Amino acid sequence: MRDTRESRLLLVLLVAVAFALITVDIRGGDDSPLNGPRTAAASVFGPVESGISRLVSPVADGLHSLRDSGSQADRIRALEQQNELLRQQLSSSDLVKSRDGQLTKLLGVAGAGQYTIKVAQVVAIGSSQDFSWTITIDIGSNDGIQRDMTVINGEGLVGRVTTVAPTTSTVLLAVDPRFTVGARLEGSGEVGFGTGEGDAPMRVQLLNGHADAKVGDRLVTFGSENDKPFVPGVPFGTITSIVNTPGELTKTVLVQPFVSFTKLDLVGVVVQPPTTDPRFAVLPPKPAPTPSNTAPASTQPSATKPTSAKKKG
């Protein structure tokens, strides 16, 4: 519509009519003459509005859910990161506690035997040349380590150093079949030689075929000439059984090592032997025997009735 005098007059007239209708509707209240047209308009346009609302609502809900799912995914990721961090902290704390306990026990053994040690960490299991029972530790010739030094941990004998590099060393474990160590029996002091048997208990041959050895007796290292490869007095196992070998000049016993070779972490290389043989001083105290719960049955005199003599008739 062009801006003319007639169009302006029409606009003014329409505005005046609208104000008049509003005034009539307000004053009429419930009896307003416009209620009928309003109801008719609602009945016509209401279904249309409802249909549009039903069409639009899923879209709006979908947009809200996408927005919410994004924020929920962010929260889930944040919680997962926090949980992973807590797991790492817990694992690190457990590792620190474990190594602290290992170090305390290792220093206790070294102190009891008067061994001067260099503490090392196991960094690999198995040799690069073959599949023997060996470990690799993180100290070498730069740290004063030499071939044929004794290796211990907080439980006892681990093995001996076989190969030395500047920063690492290879240790042959006591359970390796090529391993041989001099042994001394607790108490009697009987000596013999122990050999590794892999997963099975070590086999020890006592030189005295009549040696008084029994299950539960413990053994320590006998020591080598010039303390290489073994220093004396290192605990290495408990007798689990006596092998019946009639007619043999030696007595064979099976020995369960003190060391858990599948759990090695911190070890100590003995770089200075003790001035005197500690013999059995490094062995921990024997556990007290478990008291028996069965008490011997007490014998009580049986109550017997006196027999009465029959009178002769």
UniProtKB/TrEMBL annotation:
Job of this protein: Involved in formation and maintenance of cell shape.
Taxonomic superkingdom: Bacteria
InterPro entries: Cell/Rod_1, Cell/Rod_MreC_2, MreC, MreC_beta-barrel_core
UniProt-recorded name of the protein: Cell shape-determining protein MreC
Keywords on record: Cell shape
Family: Belongs to the MreC family.
Cellular component annotations (GO), alphabetically ordered: plasma membrane
Positions of the Rod shape-determining protein MreC beta-barrel core domain: 127-270
